[in-house]
Amino acid sequence: MRVLVVEDHPALGRALVHGLSAEGFAVDLAADGEEGLFMAGDTGYDAIVLDIMLPRVNGYDVCRRLRAAENWTPILMLTAKDGEYDEADALDIGADDYLTKPFSYVVLTAHLHALMRRGRRPRPAVLQAGDLLLDPGGRTCRRGGVSIDLTTREFSLLEYLVRHQGQVVSKQDLLAHVWAEHYDLDPNVVEVYIGYLRRKIDQPFGARSIETVRGAGYRLADDGG
């Protein structure tokens, strides 16, 4: 199993190579983001361990560029930045997992094995359904090149629908994932916000992307309606 480690701290880089090699991985080391980008695109890896604070090209941009190039190698962000927003940013731009320093090699290898079992599933930085584009990292929404202004709750609701496009999702599922802190709200609040979204992303464009499935929930058309 081949792993690319992108880490600019020499001692930690060598330690990662030694530790992962001892666990049976074949490991290559890149000392900055630019070298990491080149190596990730040139050689097939089963996983990438990627620091965020890198010289030349930071880890966020490395991840963003790989996903934009449709490189779906599983990426584990390994960093000293442990704020919840840093973790959310990493996942939003296409990373698959996140681990903070200091770390245990037992935990690191377990995370890598879990990523490899999942395989190379697409994690695009920008979500798309037809001409409807949603960028979770930049918190922007566009349709047919036109920018759409969404509230935080509307954006979260649309993001969940786009991530599950073509599938029926129930009001209960939407409440649990979009209104998690207020799960006991009246389920009709979902219907109200679906109406808000339709007035913003559908009606001005003559589209019908959000379908009501009577008695079951809602479905966003995978062609954008």
From TrEMBL:
<keyword id="KW-0597">Phosphoprotein</keyword>
<dbReference type="InterPro" id="IPR001789">
    <property type="entry name" value="Sig_transdc_resp-reg_receiver"/>
</dbReference>
<protein>
    <submittedName>
        <fullName>Response regulator transcription factor</fullName>
    </submittedName>
</protein>
<dbReference type="Pfam" id="PF00072">
    <property type="entry name" value="Response_reg"/>
</dbReference>
<feature type="domain" description="OmpR/PhoB-type">
    <location>
        <begin position="124"/>
        <end position="222"/>
    </location>
</feature>
<dbReference type="InterPro" id="IPR011006">
    <property type="entry name" value="CheY-like_superfamily"/>
</dbReference>
<dbReference type="InterPro" id="IPR039420">
    <property type="entry name" value="WalR-like"/>
</dbReference>
<keyword id="KW-0238">DNA-binding</keyword>
<dbReference type="InterPro" id="IPR036388">
    <property type="entry name" value="WH-like_DNA-bd_sf"/>
</dbReference>
<dbReference type="InterPro" id="IPR001867">
    <property type="entry name" value="OmpR/PhoB-type_DNA-bd"/>
</dbReference>
<dbReference type="Pfam" id="PF00486">
    <property type="entry name" value="Trans_reg_C"/>
</dbReference>
<feature type="domain" description="Response regulatory">
    <location>
        <begin position="2"/>
        <end position="116"/>
    </location>
</feature>
<feature type="DNA-binding region" description="OmpR/PhoB-type">
    <location>
        <begin position="124"/>
        <end position="222"/>
    </location>
</feature>
<feature type="modified residue" description="4-aspartylphosphate">
    <location>
        <position position="51"/>
    </location>
</feature>
